[in-house]
## 1
Amino acid sequence: MSESRELTCEKFGKLMTIIGAVVAVLGAILILVKNSIKNSGGLTGFWKDIYDLPWFIFLLGCGIIIFGALKWRRYLGDKTSTMDTSAKAAKTFLLNNGIILALVVMVIVIAIKENRFMQGRVLVDILAQASPRMIIALGICFTLLIAGTDLSACRMVSLAAVISASMLQNPEYPNRFFPDLPYLPVIVPIVLAIAVCMLFGLLNGFLVAKFDMHPFIATLAVQVIIYGACSLYFDLPPNNSQPIGGIRADFTLLGQKRFFQEALPAINGIPILIPIALLFVIAIWFVLNKTVFGKNVYAIGGNREAAVVSGINVFKTILCIFVLASALYGVGGVLEAARTAGATNNYGVGYELDAIAACVVGGVSLNGGVGKVSGIIIGVLIFTIIQYGLQFIGISAMWQQVIKGIIIAIAVALDLSKYRRK
Amino acid sequence: MSEYVLEMNGISKFFPGVKALDGVTLKVRRGSVHALMGENGAGKSTLMKCLFGIYHEDEGEIILDGKKQSINSSKMALDLGVSMIHQELHPISFRPVMENIWLGRFPMIKGIAVDHKKMYQMTKDLFQKIDLDINPAVLAGTLSASQLQLVEIAKAVSYNSKIIIMDEPTSSLTDNEVEHLFKIIEQLKSEGRSIIYISHKMEEILKISDEVTIMRDGTYVGTWPASELTTDLIINRMVGRDMTNRFPPKTYQTSTETIMEVRNLTATDPRSFKDVTFDLHKGEILGLGGLVGAQRTELVEAIFGLRGIASGTITIHGKPYQAKNVEEAKKYKIGLLTEERRATGIFGVLSITDNTIIASEKKFASGGILDNKKRRNIAAEENKKLNTKTPTMETLIQNLSGGNQQKVLFARWLLTTPDILILDEPTRGIDVGAKYEIYTIMQSLAAEGKAIIMISSEMPELLGMSDRVMVMSDGHLAGILNKEQADQVEVMRLATAYL
């Protein structure tokens, strides 16, 4: 590091804050200009084609300000800490954030090809679609952090969906699962559905912790059991394996309600799924970073033998991991049922692999001990944005699969090259 | 033909933020044993990794047999006649010994099928040549650590290389096996091969090597004929300071108050320790000596709740004690630093803070929720007391040298405020300077009244540090010696008593 290139973190933070402010102001000016044109007689040409781009520029600017301010604040106490600005450090930065940069490029390409992509309501749609996946990915990340996996996630989603939906049908609906069921408070079937999932999670954890079974095979066995059990339940007379419908409105609200519909007509309000997912993101971040349990999870994943020798109760921790994970799948299943106002025993198929892929793309190591909530958010968003974006520009579902696979491979290759030194 | 088979000139290697090697020179003569010495972190392993193609040097040249080479892979190094015995063994446990040896170059029948018969015979011949009595067809996982080490040596020999790098080859060998290794080395020398020998054990180096190159902090200090060197001279040049004494002077008084009584302790495993009886006093360092396989580690792990006990009793502070797991052992204020730092000690991918706090998280939490600020401060404070050298508390522990990792583990266990601290080979693979610091820490703990059990296979350490020396032999307690009675001869006599 040469003297002249040395840049203190404080300076860097200031610089970023200023850049952010400039971008935000630029966005704000564009918003104002656009609004005035709109008011003075309708939008045409360029001003129409950029849709909500000014707003996105404004938000991006705010984001940079926050990033810069954080950087600034963190090192305020230590004036001497410096940023490495050498070419090598820049290369490392590109490598570390390669997948995000690729995503940005992709979004720009999609936005150029189809200007309508630059709309607030598209963003809200994407976030809403990502929400249930996010909750499931948060569950599965615990099992990945201990160098395990969980294949039963998908079936737990369908189980929770079927159980909760079966007890929350309209009394007038002719095809009720339990024709004589009294009117239950909406919370009862939800808690019941999640509790049943947690029981199966306990079984997962027991097999793994007690018999030292590899999570792959333990959860595979449990997955098959759940599917069978769920199908049996689904096949109970009088339902006989028909899709469950006629869901009560107070339940579907949980998946379909939109807040601020009147205040924000441009994006048709904020779907309830987004704050729900946000809540779980914060909760899981807290658990992983601020609790003894979270530290023990990282420790067991980092070096199980050393964890035993340090006096960590590995048995209990593994049980808790699988129970907590399945509770999250249960929540995901309940939300799916509410969102789609229905359920079958085939809900959630493939969700577990999507969730694992999202975690891995977000930097969770399959060798255990490494992974952050922020990474998982990015992983989930990448998959949702790409799927949504590709659909948006009319790429066929088959090609979408091909592209998705390529992204997984490239992302993981990039991630691993971080750790490899030569 | 030049007299040197290998010349490494001005080798430099950079890692992000660190200069691991800075213009290092190494010249190895044909048919000689060249010792490479330096503290941990001096860059010996990095230099050897450059030679073996695991890293590529950023500056400098490697000349093999008079020809300049750019070595890009281990395969290329092997093809050029360089083989290496690694410090950490990575056997494929569930495959036979012979497959471990010939992996990547199996003899074939017509290029289609692996010729197992020939492979068996080749292995048999190889073992015979170096006088090794191991069945080539048994699974590698069934061998002991020292047998594996010898197999690894055989593998290096099998490449017929001009240069064999041996990185700490004796760390898991008994004295007899070390003798065996030296015979193999003599034989290789007489065949005109050269050996680069890395070790921390001065006595070995002076005995076996022809020339010694010393490194310090990634730089080249110099090369001398072994005949001109003494242990003190080597240490001086390695640490760059005078080290008149390898052990700090004793400044504390041991008490006679008994903290733990062990009576007739016998393991569940019939091949392990049996009928062990001893007392542990407050404020003493009780050395635990013996040969590899004497079941010392098994004994302390049983006390710590990691292994089963069939019969016998333990009392701590007069109260009966038997731990089923480490949590219970911790309640009775026992701590254990394990022998295998990497395998069972550190959490490589976690930070120094996390590694320090992990055994005492509950002290920093209310209702399971952690006080991160307190964790960070206490971890920093504890590591500062022990003089752990680390860039920040967030640094991953795998990036520290062995000595500093060990200090973090000390900090981890000291935070559990133990009365009894068990140290299993506390200075294995640690350089001389850090060893001295570890000894100082041990003494100050004893001075605070903590009782320490120290397993050590290094005779000078065992004799230099212990207040009493307890010697085990094949699972039996062979005897307990006072400091005055303890000398090398007596310890060896006891260590072989039950063999």
## 2
Amino acid sequence: MAAPVKDPKIQVKRPDESIFKRLTRHQLFIPLAALALLVLFNLIADPTFFAVTVKENSLGNPVLSGNIISVLDNASELVILAIGMTLVTASSGGQDISVGAAMAIAGSVILRMVCGGQVSADTMQTPLVLAVLVGILVSMIFGAFNGALVAYFKIQPMVATLILFTAGRSIAAWINNNQLPIINDLGFKYAGTFLPGIPVPTPIFITILVILLFWLALKFTNLGLYTQSVGINANSSRLNGLDPKLIKLLTYVILGVCVAIAGFVRVSRSGSINYSRIAENIEMDAILAVALGGNALSGGKFNIYGSILGAYVIQFLTTTLYKYEVPSTALPAYKAVVVILLVVLSAPVVQEKLASVRKAPAKAAKEVS
Amino acid sequence: MQQGAVLEMRGICKYFPGVRALQDVDFTLREGEIHALMGENGAGKSTLIKVLTGVYPKDGGEVRIKGVEGAAVIRSPQDAQNAGISTVYQEITLCPNLTVAENMYIGRTKGAGANWKAMNSGAGKILESLGIPASPKQQLGTCSIAVQQMVAIARAVDMECKVLILDEPTSSLDEQEVIKLFGLMRDLRAKGVGIIFVTHFLEQVYEVCDRITVLRDGQLVGEYVIEDLPRVQLVSKMLGKELDDMADIKSEVGGGQIDMEGVPVLEAEGLCSSAGIKPFDFSIRKGEVNGFTGLLGSGRSECVRAIFGADRVTGGNVKVDGREVRIKKPLDAMKQGIGYLPEDRKGDGIVGDLSVRENIILALQVMKGFFRPFSRAQAEAFADEYIKLLEIKTASADTPIKSLSGGNQQKCILARWLLTDPRYLILDEPTRGIDIGTKIEIQKLVLKLAAEGKSVTFISSEIDEMLRTCSRLIVMRDRKAVGELKGADLTQSKIMATIAGGDE
């Protein structure tokens, strides 16, 4: 590590940053380092962790199996939610805690559509595409409800979404008259399990598709610029012709779409729903993913890929703990320890301390005058 | 330490990546003096103060404070406070959601408990003694910017400081308040407090200061007794070049040719807004520069905000090129070719965490539309063009705008609007809190725009600045347009008289 530079000329010419310092200050450093640690731990503890084998599933089709596949598969809902949560966080400086309950609603709507109102159906009563579209629409409406409370009534996001957090699962049950519909049509489960002849779990493809969609949206629209601008300074944004309220609302509606897709994937896994347990506590993981990705929970600038990476890290951790047979009741405690470490490490205060230990300038280029 | 000095800084150095912010700077403050720290934007004034107050660690040199053995160790603003150094920053750094009293005592109470009664009565006494029109229990955010600034000063004064640093304290105060502040500064000087006064207002320096230290490009130019340094020399020392007469820019640039034929570019009748201004009429022609003047709070900003649709318009009608238009929100105004540089740069102008590039393209991008983002290359070309054109000092176009100095931030906002190629540009206090060199640049730019056939409305607290640029002034008093001056009436005394309103 470089000693403090004495000669100002050198300082002027060369940015005072070694590659290592720049790396550690990069936004994705913490989630990447966490991922590397998890990989390293598993490599040392039991290299077979990474083994991917071909097994026959219950239908007798050959499919890929292994912990890595399981991580990628099971992280799907969380990744999709984390993307929407990142936008909401950026624009409104707060989080939507109703996403788990909203997933129950979306899942319930979709199940009701495909079961045609019956408790159990062997074939889909409504075309799947239509059912999913209705699910998305309903979810967008609930997103707009949250967004309107936040943007137009200026209620703090966590309080505003507390309403749906509380009521959501009851609404989900009410949609199906308190019954637990089951669909036995294999076609319905394709999205949550495997497509015939394809050995990779479908949720992985759906996740890739969603990521791709957002990559395109961020590249070919001003979603990123507007959301950040509104989140950083709503007054300035308004005086530059933006409608901050509308943009906040928009991000909640987009999160609604993400919620519906995640809800669809979740109910497709089993073809059934348990209103009180489906996607339980997923909102906390989604928020954590955003934070792990180096995004400020107070809004403003964001990096969607950080959140995606954060979501995978969380799932990787969960799978690792399962592998070592940590009882599911003790799981949250283990997770908490890791989370504390990660969050404390990525806290600006600690980052600055680390930086000063490394004798790097505590802050990047600062005001000159 | 020198005889009578309360503070001595020797050989102070400070580097930022890519920038030499301070190099070998000396500064001495004596007991009972008001010492002006002068220099252009980026000269290193704020950096020197931040080093002194422990906001930035220094890279070289030492600080000595009266009553402290050896070199003083100041690693944080708390250390500075304990050493008797109090600071009032240019931008208000208090908490708007706390009460006035809480703001004055925050971080100063000992132990866990707070004695609210003592706090409120203590704060009340100080506010009263300084004549600050605020109640201790009032939420700070509900006070005007000027009052907030004075509360910040009251807080500093109450801390029994040896050294008081005032970083651009007057930029949001009106004349009355400035006079009050100067009275206060003189009282403190009589008590032996050393005051460092950072300002861009030359008149104010010559009104209250005893000594001047000039910085330029992070280096010390010199320390002077005020009587030995006439104004013109001070300016030339700050700029590093001889300057014959800075007042004569109008003839240099050659003001615009006002197009008196045809319909005005913009015409408003009986316009009023939710901000509570009385209905006013307004018009501006092609190539014209006019202005709103009046005391702080007289409604000059509210007028232009109504034109731009920044506040909710509650009445009146607006014609652009003779056609009636409805401007309900800023985007409507932008589509009519109107640009607006707001008064509160930090709160309404910059988008702090976004880069210089994103800040520059923002308005044009919004006009272009959600589904049509500029390519990266295009955005970079725009930013580079204006960074060069307006000589914006920034490490790169990717630097967050909040890390630029005030004057350079303002240039970015100017660039943002120039990029939209407006026909009519409203500049509300574009030169507040920025150095004299940039001020003149902006004034020249205004006249140049007019010469190109654009129309500009210019608002400034400094009347001579308005006189240098505007050909017509609308005078505001108590949220009402009370007069219009042009031609031979455009003199300092006439404007003052109209603002004061004695002769009606």
